[in-house]
Design a protein that fits this description.
With 243 residues, the protein is α/β, with parallel strands linked by helices. The protein has a single domain, classed as Glycoside hydrolase/deacetylase (TIM Barrel), CATH 3.20.20.370. It is 35% helix and 12% strand. The protein has helices at 17-27, 37-42, 44-52, 72-92, 113-125, 139-145, 174-182, 212-221, and strands at residues 3-12, 32-35, 56-59, 155-156, 198-203, 224-226. Strands 1, 2, 3, 4, 5 and 6 form a 6-stranded parallel beta sheet that branches. α7 (174-182) links the parallel β4 (155-156) and β5. α7 (174-182) packs parallel to α8. The protein is globular. Residues 3-227 form the NodB homology domain.
């Protein structure tokens, strides 16, 4: 049985999102694009194209700040401002009902309990949800997630590290990204060799656009199947693959 993974792409839409989008369409690969409101304002048409081809647009704040450094009011504004932009984009794409997903910038969801609880209440009260992720087996993942509705991930490709001034964990080339995929440390975020489902994190960054297809193809080489969580099926969307 093939290992199933959910592909999530952060920081979209970039100037090169269209290239990535065409690659995924031609490959029949579904994905959730976690977009910032500021980027959506600049490139709404490509987000509409993604929706029209069966992809999901998620909320990744307005301009990708560090939430722990913001007031509660500013955090809510980051979410609500982007929420309105996404609603308008779905409307322009002819879609009235769609799943509402949120991911914290940098995955930073920690902070004073009163503040973090208030953010989660706001998300829930405004229709945000997350899949059950029942077939993701990692203890650390469910401990971090608890009853929250934001999206985390289980495997970070660290594609962004290649072009960083100080590469994390020494990831400074695509070959080292591939090496990370081969590691077998399931409870430390490198569990591609396990039977658990995965949430893959990769980015829509201009600088790493040329290696995006290489990384996705490497997942295919590992006999991995890209899928949507079953809850998305209620919207009766299917990939419109050209393959």
């Amino acid at each position: 049985m093939m290992k199933k993974v959910y592909l999530t792409i952060d920081d979209a839409p970039s100037e090169k999102m269209n290239e990535k989008l065409d690659f995924l369409i031609n490959s029949g690969i579904p994905a959730i694009w976690f977009c910032t409101g500021s980027n959506l304002e600049k490139r709404s048409e490509i987000a509409i194209k993604a929706i029209e081809n069966g992809f999901i647009i998620g909320n990744h704040s307005f301009d990708h700040p560090h939430f722990p450094e913001l007031s509660l009011e500013s955090c809510i504004n980051q979410i609500s401002k982007t929420d309105l932009i996404i609603k308008e984009i779905y409307h322009r794409a002819g879609i009235k009902s769609y799943p509402k997903y949120f991911r914290f910038p940098y995955g930073e969801k920690k902070g004073p309990k009163e503040k973090t609880d208030a953010i989660q209440r706001y998300l829930k009260n405004n229709g945000y949800q997350r899949p059950l992720f029942e077939k993701i087996d990692y203890k650390y993942f469910h401990k971090e997630l608890d009853d929250d509705v934001d999206w985390l991930w289980t495997f970070d490709t660290l594609d962004w590290s290649i072009n960083a001034d100080n590469p994390i964990h020494g990831i400074d080339c695509v070959e080292k990204v591939f090496g990370r995929m081969d590691e077998n440390l399931p409870e430390e975020g490198r569990g591609l060799q396990s039977d658990s489902h995965e949430i893959i994190l990769i980015h829509d960054h201009l600088e790493s656009s040329d290696i995006f297809p290489q990384i996705i193809n490497q997942f295919h080489n590992k006999k991995i199947q890209f899928v949507y969580p079953e809850e998305i099926n209620q919207y009766s969307w299917t990939m419109k693959s050209k393959s």
